[in-house]
Amino acid sequence: MHTMVSTAAVRKLDELALRAGHAQLEEGQALYAAAGGAGEVQTRLEEAADCRETLLRAVQEHRADVVVLGTRRLGTLAKLLATSTSSYIIHHSTNASVLVVH
What we know:
102 residues, mainly alpha, two-stranded parallel ribbon, 4 helices, 2 strands
């Protein structure tokens, strides 16, 4: 079965996703400040085919010391079989000394 979606509907979904992403970034910055975070917080929201490579490039460009990522809450077997973004960043980043997965 195929479902047709109009271009306008796709644009609206993209707009809603972008707003939701910005809201999450703002919430994270507020939580960091409320916890007494004193360092500079840089956030970036962008669309990418491979988020792991995009994130790794941003970590290296900004010489990030700490990277905070969310999880998909996978089970143990799924974690072993999946190539997670956090594992990728841990193994390929040359400068992030702390990776917080929440």
